[in-house]
Amino acid sequence: MERPIPRPASPERGWIDFLERAHTKRLSLEDFTRVVPIVAWHHRLGPLHITDLLLGTSQARSKYRLDSRSYGYVEVLLTKLRIIDGLSVLRVLYRYSTAHNHRPPRTLSLDEARQVEKAKRLSHHRPTKVERWENSYIQEEFFFKILARTLPTHIAAAGKAGQIVLLLGDWIQLFTDVGTADLGHVNNPQSYIFGARFALMELAAAAFENQRMQLVLSHPTQKALRKRLAQRLEAFIPTVKIQSVADAQIVTRLEAFRTQVLPSWDPREEGEPVEEASYVDTLIGLDNFQVPLVPTINSRAGLYIYLNAALTGRPLIDDHALFGYLHNRYQGDLQTTATQLILAAFDVLANAVFRNEGSSMGHLLKSFVVNKVPLILVSLAQSSSAVYPFNAEFCISQALNQVDTNVFPTLSGLFDMNNNSSFQDSVRQDFCFACQLHGLLSSQAIETLLGDITYQSLPDEGRYVKETLVQSCLEDLEKTQKLIGELDNMNGNAGAAAQAVVEVLVHLCRNKETMSLKRLCTHLSSKPLSLDILLLFNNPQTILHPLCDVLDNWGGYDEDQGEYQPVYEEFGSILLLLLSFVYRYGFTAADLGRSGDSFVGKLLTKGQLAGPVSELTEQEVSHMSGWIHALFDTEAGGLGDDMMAACLPQHFYLLLPALFSHIVLALSTGNLTEEMVRGGLEYLVDVLLLPSLVPAIIYLSNSLWVDSRSDQPQVQRAVIRVLQLILRPHSLSPEASSMLSSVLNIVAKPLEHALRFYQRQEPKSQAVQPLLLALKENLSLPRRTGAADNNELELWAQTNGPSNVSVGVSTVQQTIQNLYQWAQNSPINGLPPNAAPYTHRQILAALKILGPTYLLTSILQDLRRAEQETPEAAPYAYDVITAIICAPDVRSTLKDIQTPLSLRDILKAKADDWKRIQKGDPAMAETVVRLFRRVEAQMMPPPPPPPNVVGGALEGSDGLAMAMAAQAEQQAANHNNMDAMSLDTAGLDGLGSAAGSVVGGLDLGDDMFSGLSGIHGDFGADFGPWDGTMDLP
């Protein structure tokens, strides 16, 4: 019997079968490129249909997101083989975009309604519901960028160019609608829309600037298309959240196309009105624009906001910037400056108490009040003059009389307090005694201020002098360990101790005394709260650059090197301190000034990535093999000097991700038994190699961020088992236990997130909870990057406004209203209501999520509303908003590299554009210019030092007094020497108060404590009091 001839498969079925096999077998791009032309020849199918099979949801296994292999397959078909085209990709992406699900309902115009009705009449079948992706923004961003690069090949035909323009207009309208929608919680897939939106802007700008595209658009028959495109761009651009210079550049290109290129193709018809700037308008600049006066008020809230921002992340108390801001704000009135500074410092600490910020934040804020503020007051005293006298006792008394005794009680009130925290119960008296230590108060004044006789006294060692401390520590480094313990003290001496510790650290780095440096770094890395105090009194670069230089320039071994294990211990301890700083404050390689070729640069940028073995060099493969045998081959004799002699510490630390990748793979496949892995990891949880667990655990954490249901689950289980062996070792020495705690302080938070993700994927697993318990103590130590936690974000996102996204605009506006209402109700004298709850993290989160343009626009609208509805509150609203814009930004980098656009940058752009704003909204133009002028006045940089500066400092004065003196001289010149702050400290006998004289000078520049002498005389070169009275518990 003759067998029937099989019918050939339909073209669609042929492609479906091929693509299904390719995805199942994970066909490589090389094989796909070789085979797919044969499939295309046998199964002729249009480019739109092929694209739909690849980018649509009909053949997808999961509707959440596109299969990772599809990205490469589409790119091959689009750019190499050109079997599909850009128009098809744009159409299919648009059809299945997640943005449709987030698009709010909108009323169709008459023309749009007619087009819909016409389409329904012409359709011969019932429309089917499109099943769209749950998260398509990542693939949209990817393909938008590819199309932007390869655009000329996709618009060769005029017909396709026109269709691409229409489709881009639809995309712009879609993202415009989504941009005004409520995006809900930040953890939703909508948070990825910002990358897709920026990629669409790149594609649109490239398309509209293309010559072929412009030739099509400029044709006289395309006037309706041009008008439609201009309208959609006009609606789209205000929804863009500008977060970087690149964003601003793309927006500028699109706006130029809308306002300059498109109108040039449509000449004005006769009788059509034209907008022209009058001759007078062209002569009026921003400086000459007259706006109605709103009184300037320096409210209690202004400096409260500034200090909150300066201390919400890493400490940003730059002395010169702070004194410049204070001088600009209070115009040289030293006593008002001092009073408001003390009051604001106590307000910030009280706010932390009310918000339950925790002991970590409280420790820093209390140290700022007790140890930093008195030093600033001393510098203010040195800037006093006959025009602006300074009475320290009067200022302190005025400020403390306004501090709520319910929060910061006097001595008698301490016994009546319940549930008070350790950082609020003694702040008042600690501050007073610190002021006495620095000669700002007398003992009689303290009894008056505290309302009782106190048994507290000045520290026995008197007032520290930095140079004396440094000299003593260099003679006996054990005293440095004691001095690090002094950083936690609240007695006014922590500043000198902090600068002395840093100077010793820099000295050891410069001289490459690595053995002594190891002990110092190990001690500091075990006390993360002490790092906050170091940065409160030191520039981060002063500490980090020497550490990076030591690690980057760590040379090879000496020929007579006896032992190699001490070298690894010293290198690891120094690296651990650097990583503690990097993690706690969010520093990057660029912040540290490290290039990608340096060891530190490589470790911070690629230290958590494990590439394939084929990418390793021959030397790295040799080192890898050596370490595997040394750790896990019992017959090899264990880890000895031979291995460490062959591999420098830098090479070992860069090899860790690849090493742990092999360990996990070997454990999951049975090539390594659990006992063998346990034995090898025992070397890594010892002091010798313990710091290496930082990049290792970060790599293991990243390995858990995969879907265990679609990938190999045994690999994730092996990762969990390795983490169990690391986090719960059988036995540790006290030194190793302390160092492991330092390591976990760094990696605890990212590891917790990864473990909880794995727990959601494998809810039946019982292995995760013990690991989370092992991290519990380390998780209580928050980072200081200025980032908000999830609980705060969810609280701020709970808003009913129709146009609020993530961190709701209305919550920011409500916070600002609460601040200026509190400031308005605060009396000049007497106890005001409690400070309005505030954290600058809310502004930083809004800047990141909403963008500075959107946020500032909302703030300006609220400010104008306050001017119109409650004119009496307008001065306070201006002061609050000015302080928010002028506040230090923790997002700023340590190096002069590109930083995100700030509110001040956007405000300046709006002020420069005041004429256009005035045409549509004159009141808003006045508000913008008025606010801009106030911001610039408070942010005015200090003038150059006066001519009498010798060697960078005034003779007989200090660095900050120098800066304020220079400002005072300039102001005196402008006011005919009648309304200024002059500086004459050479003959300064006292502060003009009953407190007595300020002993010694104060250098708050590079050498803050160089001029300080002890309260009972000089501290003494022999550093005698260390021997008896400075032993730490």
TrEMBL record:
Gene Ontology molecular function: transcription coregulator activity
Primary localization class, coarse: nucleus
Keyword Mitochondrion recorded: no
Protein name: Mediator of RNA polymerase II transcription subunit 5
Similarity-based family: Belongs to the Mediator complex subunit 5 family.
Record key words, sorted: Activator, Nucleus, Transcription, Transcription regulation
Gene label: MED5
Parts forming coiled coils: none
Location within or outside the cell: Nucleus
